[in-house]
Design brief:
The structure holds 2 protein chains of 2 kinds. Chain A is of the alpha/beta class. Helices cover about 35% and strands about 20% of the residues of chain A. In chain A, the strands form 3 sheets. Chain A has a 7-stranded mixed beta sheet with strand order 3-2-4-5-7-6-12, with helices on both faces. In chain A, strand 10, helix 8 and strand 11 form a beta-alpha-beta unit. In chain A, helix 8 packs across helix 12. The longest helix of chain A is centred in the N-terminal third of the chain and has 15 residues. The termini of chain A are far apart. Chain B is built from 11 helices and 8 strands. Helices cover about 40% and strands about 10% of the residues of chain B. In chain B, strand 3, helix 6 and strand 4 form a beta-alpha-beta unit. Chain B has one domain: Rossmann fold (3-Layer(aba) Sandwich), CATH 3.40.50.970. Classes of the chains: A alpha/beta, B alpha/beta. Chains A and B meet through helix 3 and helix 11 of A and loops of B.
Chain lengths: ~350, ~325
């Protein structure tokens, strides 16, 4: 094992990018404010100084153009990593994403590759309003042809980024603003962890058991994992043993890992900051029940964002978001529900 | 044509309101954010995009507009909202996220909607242009009066929506005016680094409409130059594209370190601050005196303070009211 150092997710992403850019001249980065500024969320910091403007390219505010260009460059043999500053901005460029980036491998019968990464910030909780706060996990995961990852900590962030860059398929890399370690968007200390200096790959599509438990399986991703881990500590005091699964990837979804956990605990709670209906939480519950609904001792539960645009004002937004407190309450109720 | 005396005072007065409001927001925004700057904290959380320096673009155009005319603004909307006559108290309460705000706190500072004066804004670059075109179409189809004005920043001129809406407005000969506030910066990326032409107004030629470039960040000049475009739209002459060279005296948002600005730029912009320059211009023209300027300053500050007090003293809506108004 190589030496490690403590990094934020932002620094871990930048480190993976730098190492991959050193190793492979085909890797380049483009997006808004990603060059001198180092990305609004810090994940390209230092790249411009090391690699210069040819490989670390600031773009105009022209997502349709530069994400479409990413598709073309990827199909021509480059490995573009393209930043969509806020995932909410996908609205102006989605054709390039879901009709081309996600489908061109298939349309070519596998003869073309699209080794492209889109990294985009997600997440609410700091009153940025309904156009700068969404997760949209389910939106991307629903449409075939894109792998979708979302790290909850720096170690995973680096390994997933390296895997995403080396993947010959397009990968949507969703990082939560509340976990970036930027300070001005708050901090989650548990997201800042030891990261090997040497580069490494974390296989896309593999979930991780963040903490083992016997009574309830909490399945989550990104910031929800941290809510769940905090809840697990509190629930332990109430003699409720919670197992927390960090999905890390939504596509491919590690259904085996989820089912194995629920088989053990018999109870399933999904925590997802994305909208409630037609999304990730429903998919996970369906995956378990269609496998074998008899493994469930109680009805499955989910804590999600209600089906409303994300409100600006703090009381409404905080009320609507998943939280540690909500998880504790639901878990207690699930255990009472014999 | 120059604005009349009363129009000039109207423009100056609205600049005063907007500027003082921004200065107060700047201070209040930092409450609860020291010593650690966390956007989530304080009475005004979230992103805050100030419009100091861009007030002439708002007043110079909106001086020609009535309540029935439609305006769509950007993520940096305050100065335009003020000039369009958006209710100050409700606007401030919205910025604070209070129940008495324009949308009860659901929108926030990037999503100010006041249907009584036909004002709306969106936080996504260039995306207010389509709705402006649609509103203009609606007036045309209903044979109703009124024009639509879509404000955007210079960075938005590189969005697909910009080109698509210009073409559509021209093909359908709609009463809409596109106003670009060119403050030279799309967050940290300069206009020259992002834009293939030095003046976006030349792009009007591609869509067969007049393109007007205004070099001077002065309300009088903007008023005079935009008058023809708005009259043209009112008289069925179709759309126009106007670009105004203006200045963003603050950062992109509060907390922006502005390290991307060339040395001395900020100091130069502050020297060219359009507000004191316009004040002096009105004094020199004997339109205001130093005495009645003080009275005007006092009166407008009082208005803003009243709005702030209203916002501070208002209650938050109940959290579960978040569920209301998803559908009509």
């Amino acid at each position: 094992m190589s030496a490690t150092k403590k990094l934020t997710i932002a620094r871990a992403m930048a480190e993976s990018l730098a190492q991959e850019m050193r190793a492979d001249p085909k890797v380049f980065v483009m997006g808004e404010d990603i060059a001198q500024l180092g990305g609004v969320f810090g994940n390209t910091r230092g790249l411009f100084d090391e690699f210069g403007g040819e490989r670390v390219r600031d773009t105009p505010i022209s997502e349709t153009a530069f994400i479409g260009a990413g598709v073309g460059a990827a199909m021509d043999g480059m490995r573009p990593v393209v930043e969509l500053m806020f995932v909410d901005f996908f609205g102006v460029c989605f054709d390039a994403i879901y009709n081309m980036m996600a489908k061109n491998i298939y349309f070519s019968g596998g003869n073309s590759h699209v080794p492209m990464v889109i990294m985009a910030s997600t997440g609410a909780g700091y009153s940025d309003g309904g156009q700068h706060s969404q997760c949209l996990y389910g939106t991307f995961a629903h449409l075939p042809g894109m792998k979708v990852v979302a790290p909850s900590n720096a170690y995973d962030a680096k390994g997933l980024m390296t895997a995403a860059i080396r993947d010959n398929s397009p990968v949507i890399y969703l990082f939560h603003k509340g976990l970036q370690g930027m300070g001005w968007l708050g901090n989650e200390p548990a997201a800042i962890n030891q990261v090997p200096e040497e580069n490494y790959v974390l296989e896309i599509g593999k979930a991780k058991t963040a903490v083992e438990g016997a009574d309830i399986s909490i399945i989550s991703i990104g910031i929800g994992v941290h809510h769940a881990l905090k809840a697990a500590l509190e629930l332990e005091k109430k003699n409720i043993s919670v197992e927390v699964i960090d999905l890390r990837s939504l596509v491919p979804l590690d259904r085996e890992h989820i089912i194995a956990s629920v088989k053990k605990t018999g109870r399933l709670l999904v925590v997802d900051e994305d909208y409630h209906s037609f999304g990730v939480s429903g998919e996970i519950i369906a995956s378990v029940t269609e496998h074998d609904h008899k493994i469930l001792k109680t009805p499955p539960c989910r804590i999600t964002f209600p089906d409303i645009p994300i409100p600006f004002t703090r009381p409404m937004e905080q009320w609507a978001l998943p939280s540690t407190e909500k998880i504790i309450n639901v878990c207690v109720t699930m255990m009472e529900n014999k | 044509m120059l604005p009349t005396e009363s129009q000039r005072i109207w423009m100056y007065r609205n600049m005063l309101i907007s500027r003082y409001m921004e200065e107060r927001i700047e201070t209040i925004y930092m409450e609860g954010k020291k010593p650690v700057f966390n956007m989530a904290n304080g009475p005004i959380p979230g992103e805050m995009h100030l419009s100091n320096g861009q007030e002439p673009c708002a007043v110079g155009v909106c001086a020609h507009l009535e309540a029935e005319d439609i305006v769509t603004a950007t993520h940096r909307p305050h100065h335009i909202a003020v000039a369009k006559g958006v209710n100050l108290k409700k606007m401030m309460a919205e910025i604070f996220g209070k129940k008495t705000g324009l949308s009860g706190g659901r929108g926030g500072h990037m999503h100010l909607f006041d249907s009584t004066v036909n004002f709306a804004c969106s936080g996504i670059i260039a995306q207010g242009m389509g709705p402006a075109v649609g509103a203009a179409l609606s007036r045309k189809l209903q044979n109703k009066s009124g024009v639509a004005v879509a404000y955007i920043g210079e960075g938005a001129a590189n969005q697909g929506a910009f080109h698509e809406t210009l073409n559509l407005a021209s093909v359908w000969n709609l009463p809409v005016i596109f106003v670009i506030e060119d403050n030279n910066w799309g967050i940290s990326v300069s206009k020259s680094a992002s834009t293939a032409v030095a003046k976006n107004s030349v792009r009007a030629a591609s869509y067969n409409m007049p393109g007007i470039h205004i070099e001077d960040n002065c309300p009088d000049v903007i008023f005079s130059e935009t008058k023809k475009a708005i009259e043209r739209a009112r008289n069925g002459g179709g759309p126009s594209l106007i670009e105004i060279k203006t200045s963003r005296l603050a950062g992109h948002f509060m907390g922006d370190a502005e390290g991307y600005r060339p040395k001395g730029e900020k100091e130069q912009l502050i020297k060219e601050d359009p507000l004191p320059i316009y004040r002096q211009k009105l004094i020199d023209a004997n339109i205001i005196t130093i005495d009645n300027d003080s009275a005007l300053v006092e009166e407008t500050q009082k208005l803003v303070e009243q709005a702030i007090t209203f916002a501070r003293e208002s209650e938050y809506a109940k959290p579960e009211e978040a569920m209301l108004h998803v559908f009509a």
